[in-house]
Design a protein that fits this description.
alpha/beta, seven-stranded parallel β-sheet, 16% strand, 7 strands, Rossmann fold
């Protein structure tokens, strides 16, 4: 049974990712930082439904804490699937954005990617199979007012995705990014009303976390072995 580490696994999209991968006979490690109780609840739910899961808590911005947690997790078996889903919003126009809000967003999305992924690469390379998915955003593709920090972090993640894909291609390890648009959940409900969604999304609706998870599950499969270095939009035909 392959093992997958999903950071930010207790959120709306993260929960869908964990649930879907578990349905594909993958042991999922549900990561959280501030919502560990929710992560443990999700892991129990997956187990009760016949899947395999465990929960873990650490701050992806803390390199030492991340390395310690990953070392402990790896001791019980090789982790060959990584979904870097952890991310935060600190929205504000750049003219009024504090340095703290700029730094925190980049720390989670970009430095978190390094802190989680880099320690797992050599064992993955030695196994000659792996799947790495970086969860991005339409903001990283198109930009978005009030999200210079978030857009910058996700756009940088695109460059890292393409570069790492080239580095690992000969080892049968794929690296891709998924860039969701407006997806149902707490984050979008606080930012977009129904009329706004109908105006800016050609499909006239928000996406579902399960739809994002279905794409991720395919990218983690053997059938997707020739797809790498791609930024895949899932946004209801937003330009």
């Amino acid at each position: 049974m392959k093992k997958a580490l999903i950071t930010g696994g207790s959120g709306d999209i993260g929960s869908a990712l964990c649930t879907r991968l578990a349905q594909n006979n993958i042991h999922v490690i549900v990561h959280s930082n501030h919502n560990f109780d929710k992560a443990r609840q999700l892991a129990r739910q997956i187990t009760q439904q016949g899947g395999s899961a465990e929960a873990v808590a650490f701050d992806v911005c803390d390199s030492e804490a991340s390395a310690h947690a990953i070392q402990k997790l790896s001791a019980s078996g090789l982790i060959q699937i990584i979904i870097n889903n952890a991310g935060i919003h600190r929205d504000a126009p750049l003219v009024g954005m504090s340095r703290q809000n700029w730094t925190e967003v980049i720390d989670v999305s970009l430095h978190g990617f390094y802190n989680v992924t880099q320690p797992l690469l050599m064992p993955m390379i030695q196994s000659r199979w792996g799947r790495i998915i970086n969860m991005s955003s339409v903001a990283g593709v198109m930009g978005n007012r009030g999200q210079c920090n978030y857009s910058a972090a996700k756009a940088a993640l695109h460059g890292a995705t393409k570069s790492l894909a080239q580095e690992l291609a000969s080892r049968k390890i794929t690296v891709n990014a998924i860039a969701p648009g407006i997806i149902q959940g707490n984050m979008s409900e606080n930012s977009f009303d129904a009329q706004t969604i109908k105006t800016i999304v050609p499909m006239k609706r928000a996406g579902k976390p399960e739809e994002v998870a279905a794409l991720a599950a395919f990218l983690c499969s053997d059938e997707a072995s020739y797809i790498s270095g791609q930024i895949i939009n899932i946004n209801g035909a937003m330009a």
